[in-house]
Specification:
eleven-stranded mixed sheet
């Protein structure tokens, strides 16, 4: 189990800082984490990394002035200097046009994000799991490259209004690129529990895609019917959440949701929401301001229905936080971190026959969602498995293709959504996730 003495010290120091009464409000946010990564290339381990670090953020308000400072030391002198710096910044900065309202004491849902199976796993045990995948793939001449990462961490939030919250977590991410000659295949999985990752099955699946991707053919630019597998869909939904579902962009007018709440922005088969309490993703009971997590509707059957707020954006607009507070001082503002695209009524094995003639895309690569966020315009490349489909069956592999598409408009043309969904990482925070289904789109633009 995690070090209870250090946990108690986090809360103790947080209460001391927050209770100093040196500002109108004081917030103390701590995140400590120990992570380990095993990297492999061509079915050989080539790097092992272990990192232990912590970050401590202090945010203060003096009237309408806000100051934020941070340190990575839990020593009392370092935290006191951090508080002094935050106070100095607040005194010297300009007043904001709003009064920051931070949450008081809250009740939180019981969430299990910590698994001893992950914490206790040694590098040797993790290497043994991955080596099994090497051996299986090696029989067909396929090599694996990728990484298995695990983390053990804890988040604590204490403020001068009496809020106190602490949550331990574990994290596992396995990614594997199988290769044979110029052919590749890709699979990825995340979980809190190492024993829930089917390492052998995942690596076998990436090897299977690789073997089907040999001798790829050329394709012409154009608009095609496409079947996007979850790994590809996750990239698009991640970028939608980053560019369109945050209150800062919504308020600034750069979001595709600006002035469009209540309007249809996609087809009726699309429902997207954020829910940090859903155990089907990487759940957590509160955000980095201590506000409770809850379900937030973003697109409801095609209709834009909400955006994510933290205390800053909520105070500006006279609203309530939706539980999406980032680390204090994060200037990008709040974003959905636990995103779900609701599954539909089609079975995944039936999606290829429903596609008929078109292109099957396993995953995307180098997606750029910043071309024109207002229009949800994105570009990127297919990678690790692109196939021409004829009569509902895979005909041959295709070379990587570039797409350039208004994603919301493409989502208007969705014909079918699978019941099955898969979970992928969403951003750099270990407990961020995006869960998505297979999606069949009647019209997707490939430009090269």
């Amino acid at each position: 189990m995690m070090n209870g003495l250090l946990k108690d010290r986090l809360i103790e120091e947080g209460e001391r800082i927050a209770g100093s009464k040196r500002a109108d409000t004081i917030e103390f946010v701590a995140n400590r984490e120990s992570s380990s990564t095993l990297r492999f290339s061509s079915s050989r381990f080539h790097q092992g990394i272990s990192v232990s670090d912590a970050s401590f953020h202090i945010r203060v308000t003096i009237g309408r002035k806000i100051g934020v400072a941070s340190t990575n030391s839990i020593e009392r002198d370092a935290l006191d200097r951090c508080l002094d710096e935050a106070l100095s910044i607040a005194r010297s900065t300009r007043e904001e046009p709003f009064l920051l309202r931070i949450p008081g004491p809250c009740r939180y849902a019981k969430i299990s994000s910590f698994f001893e199976s992950t914490e206790r796993a040694t590098n040797g045990e993790k290497a043994l799991l991955v080596s099994t995948g090497f051996r299986d793939a090696g029989r067909s001449g396929v090599l694996h490259s990728g990484a298995l990462s695990t983390a053990v961490g804890e988040i604590a939030v204490v403020n001068s209004r009496g809020l106190k919250a602490c949550h331990p977590y574990t994290f596992v991410h396995l990614s594997s690129v199988a290769s044979k000659g110029d052919a590749t295949g890709f699979e990825s999985a995340v979980s809190n529990d190492l024993t829930e990752i089917d390492v052998r099955g995942l690596m076998s699946a990436s090897a299977g895609t690789c073997l089907k991707s040999s001798s790829p053919g050329e394709s012409k630019p154009g608009v095609y019917r496409v079947l996007l597998e979850p790994a590809a869909v996750s990239e698009l939904v991640h970028w939608l959440s980053y560019t369109g579902f945050g209150a800062k962009g919504f308020h600034d007018g750069t979001s595709f949701a600006s002035e469009r709440l209540g309007e249809a922005v996609t087809g009726e088969k699309v429902t997207i929401y954020d829910d940090g309490l859903d155990a089907n993703g990487m759940a957590i009971p509160f955000d980095f301001e201590g506000s409770p997590k809850r379900r937030l509707s973003l697109i409801d059957k095609g209709v834009a229905s909400g955006v994510a707020y933290d205390s800053v954006t909520a105070s500006i607009e006279g609203r309530e936080s939706t539980g999406h507070g980032p680390f204090p001082g994060d200037n990008e503002g709040p974003f959905p971190e636990h995103v779900f695209m609701e599954g539909g009524d089609a079975a995944a094995p039936d999606m290829l026959p429903l596609l008929g003639d078109g292109i099957l895309v396993k995953s995307f690569h180098y997606v750029n969602g910043l071309l024109n966020p207002r229009e949800s315009l994105m570009t990127g490349m297919t990678r690790h498995g692109t196939f021409l489909v004829s009569g509902g069956a895979v005909k041959c592999a295709l070379r990587p293709m570039r797409f350039t598409e208004n994603i919301l408009e493409a989502f208007r043309r969705i014909e079918a959504v699978s019941r099955e969904t898969a979970v992928y990482p969403n951003g750099s925070f270990p407990l961020g996730s995006v869960s998505v289904p297979y999606v069949l789109i009647d019209g997707f633009s490939f430009t090269s």
